Protein: ABC transporter ATP-binding protein
Amino acid sequence: MLQVLKLQKSYGAGNTIYPVLKGVSFTVMDGEFAAVMGSSGSGKTTLLNCISRYIPIDSGKVKLGDTDLSLLDETQIARVRSRELGFVFQDFLLLDGLTVRQNILLPAIIGNTISDAAEEQADHLCTIFGIEKICEKYPAEISGGEKQRTAVARALINHPQLILADEPTGNLDSKSARAVIDTFLQARDSLSATIFMVTHDSFAASFCDKVIILQDGLVWKELLRDGRERRAFQDELLNAIREMGR
Ligand SMILES: Nc1ncnc2c1ncn2[C@@H]1O[C@H](COP(=O)(O)OP(=O)(O)OP(=O)(O)O)[C@@H](O)[C@H]1O
Ligand SMILES: [Mg+2]
Structure:
């Protein structure tokens, strides 16, 4: 479970301080697929970077399970990043010189968790995501959709407690965006993965269990899908975004 409590973060430039997060609190339950939305500049990437502690927070807490990430030293947080967190980036960032399978195993190599079990997990993920036939190919030789699935498989290799994704559908057409979302849904359903995804896109967000909307440095609204039809949830999201604009 991810718990963010009264998180505050400002950026300073000379004597000027720009508050971005002014006391953000929310929870993402284990096995939940959650999205965070908000206009450009509302602090979504800042929030992700605070959770993974790539940038220091001013105050508040970020708890992953029982661990308060804000209290860890650099060595401890590096270990959490490599073992407990999985990252999916907007442009996927696969390494061209490694095969699909090697790319998937990369976090296990970096996190020093490489083992027969990790190799088996890589094969298992390739099967789940339907990329087993291309796993010896290089990124330049595979399609965009296959790259996305490889990136999500890589984020899952160490059985992370949490996947963090910043605009993973941002550069994609709607069909490829749908494929990324399907991969996350599969990860949630067959591996009980917990996913926290930043998105601008109400279509992508409408597949989530929960959507957190940021405005003016705070959680403006939290919407739950609650088993509703996707279309109905998307309509609610669009209405909320319109209301926020007023
Ligand atoms: N390193 C930094 N130094 C100073 N200000 C920053 C820094 N990074 C971000 N900001 C500012 O903080 C605010 C929030 O930025 P952030 O990148 O978190 O927004 P975002 O919600 O991810 O936006 P987008 O949807 O455009 O990606 C913006 O006003 C931005 O200019
Ligand atoms: Mg951003």
Q: What stands out?
A: Strands lie at 2-13, 16-28, 33-37, 59-64, 67-68, 85-88, 162-166, 195-198, 210-215, 218-224. The mean pLDDT is 93. Residues 44-45 surround magnesium ion (ligand 2) (CB under 6 Å). The two ends are 34 Å apart (CA to CA).
